[in-house]
Amino acid sequence: STWGVLLSYCSIATRLQADRATALYRTSCLPISVFTPVLTHNTVLQYPVTMTSSSGSEHSPGGSRTAVILYRDREEWSDIEPRKQDDGPNPVVSIAYTEKFQDVYDYFRAVLHRDERSERALRLTADAANMNPANYTVWAFRRVILKHLECDLQNELRFIGDMITHHPKNYQVWFHRLKILEWIGEAPGELEFIASVLLLDSKNYHAWQHRQWVIKTFNLWDNELDFVSKLINEDIRNNSAWNQRYFVVSNTKDLGCFNVAAEEMYYALGKIGLAPNNESAWNYLRGVLQSRNLYSFPGLRDGIQELVDREVCSPFLQEFRIDVFEDELELSLENRDAVLDTAKRVLEHLANTLDTIRGKYWNYRYRRIVSRYGGTDI
């Protein structure tokens, strides 16, 4: 389809050249033929729009310059009285807005004041959002207009998708996409879209937050565990992927079941063996075993001891050993004094050598374990 070709070329050939491809969708309530791109022989998209340069003039993706037509100079906007921003009588620090920015927002404030829900107002919100995608009021009013005009929401998804590719860490653009998906009531292809954004930054908090909402809202759990496993294999220190794995496992499996907990324990231990100083894997191990006694859980002590025997130098390993020792001491075993002595030595090693930056914390843990289970304080 035309849109499929458009999105493919936008993501591959024109991301740098079409710095603000959002303008392509300003006529989102009009037929697609109005703003179909023209493909040239070298696959560069030429848009029937103009873009602003740093000098104030505008240019097309091909480089030709055209004059900026401000809203105040457009005949179709002559019936609107622009509303200036009110900074009070004595502003301390006035922001040096560009002429075009002031023009767009003066007219946006005017249509907002009039509550004008028209196609031209919709196009104006696209301009305003393009200049400041973090402006919540612009997005909120755009949604009001979209509903009033009963616009094609698939076109709006494409519009906001383009905005996200240019502003992937902006809360408002993601929230707008969430609301549009709520209105549509389904999300085909949404996980693939989010995956494409994560290719740019695999730890994008906004993308992961949106992905979790989509999965829970539309019950799209299938294959998600495979997806995050792949990301962890590609980057074992991807804390976001570890968090997502816990999100999926805790929502689709019963961690109270021994077999499930054991499977995830061995998975985490395997990754810890590859990168013992990766805190994410240790936190995941704690998470899947949080309701269990670490000392008595089958296979765990052997896995930890294997790392100790390898003389792995990791504060996370030693901290986990302390947690195991505390669970062991809770059982009031005959070798209680020997376990306590070992725990004290490990805590001293953490405080004085391995993790001195948290030395006071380890000294606190030392005093606490001595207070609870006996022995001589430091």
Notable characteristics:
378 residues, mainly alpha, 3-stranded antiparallel sheet, two-stranded antiparallel ribbon, 16 helices
Describe this protein's structure.
The model is unreliable at 1-64 (pLDDT under 50). With 378 residues, this protein is mostly helical. β3 (51-52) and β4 (58-59) form a beta hairpin. The protein has helices spanning 2-12, 99-114, 119-131, 136-149, 153-166, 171-184, 190-200, 205-218, 224-234, 239-252, 258-274, 279-288, 300-309, 315-330, 336-354, 359-373; strands at 38-39, 45-46, 51-52, 58-59, 65-66. The strands form two sheets. It has a three-stranded antiparallel sheet with strand order 3-4-5, with no helix packed on it. The protein has a two-stranded antiparallel ribbon with strand order 1-2.
Question: Can you lay out the helices and strands and say which pair or pack?
Answer:
Layout: H1 2-12, E1 38-39, E2 45-46, E3 51-52, E4 58-59, E5 65-66, H2 99-114, H3 119-131, H4 136-149, H5 153-166, H6 171-184, H7 190-200, H8 205-218, H9 224-234, H10 239-252, H11 258-274, H12 279-288, H13 300-309, H14 315-330, H15 336-354, H16 359-373
Antiparallel strand pairs: 1-2, 3-4, 4-5
